Write the structure tokens for this entry.
Amino acid sequence: MARADRIVAFTGAGLSTECGVPDYRSPGSPWKVHAPIGFADYLADPALRREAWRRKFAMDDIYAGARPGRGHRALTRLYAGGRLGAVITQNIDGLQQAAGMPEHAVIELHGNGSYAACLECGIRFELAPIRQAFEADGTLPRCACGGIVKSASIAFGQPIPQDSIRRAASLAL
């Protein structure tokens, strides 16, 4: 690092576990109880979409109090000092941005679970109104364009956005 002009960090679950965000593979992980619904199943079945939203909100409650940790803050300082070009992350928790890293400097390979998006037109939806309607009567979110709305995290079987892959690859070379 001392000799590099600019570095890129690649992060995963370990960065956020100290912050209260459970990882997926550890024994006793709440992700095992609230396992994600696969993308094809999500698209095909409204009952599975409803279950996916139930599980998503249950997981959100588990790590609702998570705040950026030492690693997030250290990476943000490196970025602010001009040493770090970007963070490429598998995390979906948004904690790197909460630590002060600008959105454009964080490449989220697995998306972001702090909001939702229409799978057809891409419009962003905030989670609070979705959750309120869902908890009131099980209403599934729909976009005005008629598209299915899903958490902006990448589901199993859902392609990782090619733009994220290209940006990550170009920075890692």
The chain has eight helices and six strands. The two ends are 15 Å apart (CA to CA).
